Amino acid sequence: MKLLQERILKDGNVKSGNVLKVDSFLNHQMDIELFNEIGKEFKRIFADYNINKILTIEASGIGIACITAQYFNSPVVFAKKAQSINIDGAVYSTKIESFTHKKTYDVIVSKKFLNPEDRVLIIDDFLANGCALAGLIELVRSAGATVEGIGIVVEKGFQNGGELIRSMGVRLESLAIVDAMNADDGSITFRN
Amino acid sequence: MKLLQERILKDGNVKSGNVLKVDSFLNHQMDIELFNEIGKEFKRIFADYNINKILTIEASGIGIACITAQYFNSPVVFAKKAQSINIDGAVYSTKIESFTHKKTYDVIVSKKFLNPEDRVLIIDDFLANGCALAGLIELVRSAGATVEGIGIVVEKGFQNGGELIRSMGVRLESLAIVDAMNADDGSITFRN
């Protein structure tokens, strides 16, 4: 997605430790006009899949998922990190290791909100090692629901998450795939 | 907001401990069509305030804030709970005690995303004891920015948060104010 790549080149920052900061428009401050273009693109890609539910994970996936959901006329469910007293005991759960925070979370979705007839589009902002996505796929499949596709905004193509998820037989589409980046000169190379 | 009150009566559940579960449409599964009606109502209320930024807090405020932002043509910034390696040292921070989770969080916003010229609308799903809102107001004022108003979806009118925040001289508008609820018979009484 050309608009997104241009924005990453303009406002993204490469930091040491393979960190790509896009917090001025994607995951801390959020450019809602850009999110609408992202949502339209996901709809274009997944138009034929009869998606009836969008699943994401808190926190930074939620905004993109909600804007995207407008193009599918579907509700959004977000998976929650760690148990809350507001969640009933009846949950699907899995463990996810966060690349960003270097720790392991319990991630849950109430059983009320994933059902066998659901045709789910999973949306998230980043794909790195694929742990979060693998966990979300597991939650959907635990419910007997179908993962129709996965829409990612930025994939780090030099990490193994994309390969891992595509090997699970799921259609994964990333709007920008970063194949290389360099903290010294700030350069970013996208996959064509 | 009549549509919201009707939805709370239809799909909300009163649990012991003053918990109102609205997780089927507001803060776990999210009804984006309802969110659009909420966003329009916030725009109607705050149309004259020249809002240029919406601030919320992760996680359950993000979806409502993003949909609402479409009516203000503004970006959204969400305050983050606890330090992440992706956040620069340059942050505004405060401590917030969560009613839901019974613990205290450090809450931060990057200094890049709150500036003295910002006219901020704060959006959140729930208002109970007001700690989260007081923290967000403090973050905005730390930046020298202006809180033009606060839009809440559900206020628990029998807790003291509404009084606390209104006494700070901020315009606070809640789309539904619950004055009483009863876990035994499931009844919910709204303020007129």
TrEMBL record, chains A, B:
For this entry, the protein name equals Xanthine phosphoribosyltransferase
Q: Where in the cell is it found?
A: Cytoplasm
Annotated residues for binding of xanthine: 20, 27, 156
Question: Pfam families recorded for this chain?
Answer: Pribosyltran (PF00156)
Residues that bind 5-phospho-alpha-D-ribose 1-diphosphate, according to the entry? Answer: 128-132
- Report the function annotation for this chain: Converts the preformed base xanthine, a product of nucleic acid breakdown, to xanthosine 5'-monophosphate (XMP), so it can be reused for RNA or DNA synthesis.
> What Enzyme Commission number(s) does the record list for this chain?
2.4.2.22
Q: What is its main location?
A: cytoplasm
Q: In which pathway does it act?
A: Purine metabolism; XMP biosynthesis via salvage pathway; XMP from xanthine: step 1/1
What gene does the UniProt entry assign to this protein? xpt
PANTHER family to which the protein is assigned, alphabetical: HYPOXANTHINE/GUANINE PHOSPHORIBOSYLTRANSFERASE, XANTHINE PHOSPHORIBOSYLTRANSFERASE
Q: Name one GO molecular function term.
A: xanthine phosphoribosyltransferase activity
Q: Which HAMAP family match?
A: XPRTase
What's one GO-annotated cellular component?
Answer: cytoplasm
**Which lineage ranks, top first, belong to the organism behind this chain?**
Bacteria, Bacillati, Bacillota, Clostridia, Lachnospirales
What keywords were assigned to this record? Cytoplasm, Glycosyltransferase, Purine salvage, Transferase
